[in-house]
Amino acid sequence: MQRRDFLKLSGLTLAMTAAGLTSLPVYAADPIKVGILHSLSGTMAISETALKETALMTIDEINRSGGVMGRKLEPVVVDPASNWPLFAERARQLLTQDKVAVVFGCWTSVSRKSVLPVFKELNGLLFYPVQYEGEELEKNVFYTGAAPNQQAIPAVEYLMSRDGGSAKRFVLLGTDYVYPRTTNKILRAFLKSKGIVDADIMEEYTPFGHSDYQTIIAKIKRFAGEGKKTCVVSTINGDSNVPFYKELGNAGLKATDVPVVAFSVGEEELRGVDTKPLVGHLAAWNYFQSIKNPTNDKFIKMYRDWARKNKLPNASTVVTNDPMEATYIGIHMWKQAVEKAKTTDVDKVIAAMAGQTFKAPSGFVVKMDEKNHHLHKPVFIGEVRADGQFSVVWKTKGPIRAQPWSPFIPGNDKKKDVPEGA
Question: 75 by DSSP, 3-state: which?
Answer without folding.
Answer: strand
